[in-house]
Write a structure and sequence with these properties.
Layout (H helix, E strand, L loop, with lengths): L11 E4 L2 E4 L10 H5 L2 E3 L2 E4 L2 E2 L2 H14 L8 H14 L5 E9 L13 E9 L6 H6 L1 E10 L16 H12 L4 E6 L4 E3 L4 E6 L2 E4 L9 H12 L4 E3 L4 H5 L3 E6 L3 E8 L2 E2 L4 H14 L9 H4 L1
Parallel strand pairs: 8-9, 8-15, 12-13
Antiparallel strand pairs: 1-2, 1-7, 3-6, 4-5, 4-6, 6-7, 9-10, 11-12, 11-14, 14-15, 15-16
Helix pairs in contact: 2-3
Length: 302
């Protein structure tokens, strides 16, 4: 199935305060965000017409912009309203949304004091990121040779475009080797995430996830932690080692695109998609669609 280029689609994009036809939402090639990575963004999902945790995503967008020294020209309330406007204009019910803010073409060079911050919001129909077969058996990860930067070397708590360069390199390398995604370790060598999702490891019914001290504290990650505690699963926030992963009973990742996704293989270690991962995935799927998430309690699921 051929991909439809994203610059050749029908619909509308919210661009600097107004809806414009999709194909007219363009920027100049001499744009600071393109040349120097001064760009932040969000990835969000709408389920049955409702944007999941829209307020939290917008707050993070503004935090990311602030970490990059970018002054947002709109309020958070205006961005939240604009996202709803984009969904309606494109007649979308289940969709992915991409708010993005970047420094414009008003100034070119390392310095950017004279640039303006521009904002756009696009949305398109996007079903589950992974096939039913992968959701049943789990995806595969290949450990990347790239490391997530230390917090004193990059604005690692911002969802900034430039920070994803090594993720792209890592994912391409993993795909060439026949894997679905890459496992990213931090600057200390601790595994922390996939290329766009946070990491969770389960051993003897106890869930462990790394503290987000040098990587993005995902909103889906935070949601999964809340669900795990609501459902009675013991949960720790602490470092995970490669040996921890090799001895795990289950592994899963969380992200807006990935949702709650079990891992079936990391390098040469194979995992079963177990009861804890299944319970949390079911609870998450119910939560985002406004349904009760009465999954099995820990004592029953384990």
């Amino acid at each position: 199935m051929a991909l439809i280029p994203f610059d050749d689609r029908d619909g509308f994009i919210w661009f600097d305060g107004a809806l414009v036809p999709w194909r007219e939402a363009k920027i100049h090639v001499i744009t600071h965000g393109l040349h120097y990575g001064s760009c932040v963004f969000e990835g969000e999902r709408a389920y049955e017409g409702q944007i999941f945790k829209s307020v939290e995503h917008t707050a993070r967008l503004f935090k990311s912009a602030d970490l990059l020294g970018m002054e947002m020209p709109f309020t958070q309330e205006q961005i939240n309203e604009a996202k709803e406007e984009v969904l309606k204009a494109n007649n979308l019910v289940d969709a992915y949304l991409r708010p993005v803010a970047w420094r414009g073409s008003e100034q070119m060079g390392i310095a950017a004091q004279s640039t303006k911050t521009h904002v756009a919001i696009a949305a398109w129909e996007w079903p589950s990121y992974f096939s039913p077969e992968l959701r049943e058996h789990g995806i595969s990860l290949k450990t990347s040779s790239w490391k997530k930067p230390a917090p004193d070397t990059a604005p690692c708590h911002a969802k900034a475009a430039g920070l994803y360069m090594i993720n792209t390199l890592s994912k391409h390398d993993a795909e060439k080797a026949g894997y679905i995604d890459a496992l990213m370790c931090d600057y200390r060598g601790y595994p922390v995430e996939a290329t766009g999702a946070n990491l969770f490891r389960i051993k003897d019914g106890v869930i462990r996830t790394p503290k987000p001290d040098c990587f993005l504290n995902g909103i889906t990650r935070q949601t999964a932690i809340e669900l795990a505690r609501d459902l009675g699963f013991p949960l720790e926030e602490d470092h995970i080692t490669m040996e921890d992963l090799k001895s795990a009973d289950e592994v899963f990742i969380t992200g807006t695109a990935a949702e709650v996704m079990p891992i079936g293989k990391i390098d040469d270690t194979v995992y079963a998609v177990g009861p804890v991962s299944r319970a949390l995935r079911e609870a998450y799927e119910n939560l985002v669609r406004g349904r009760p998430y009465m999954a099995k309690k820990n004592s029953e699921a384990a």
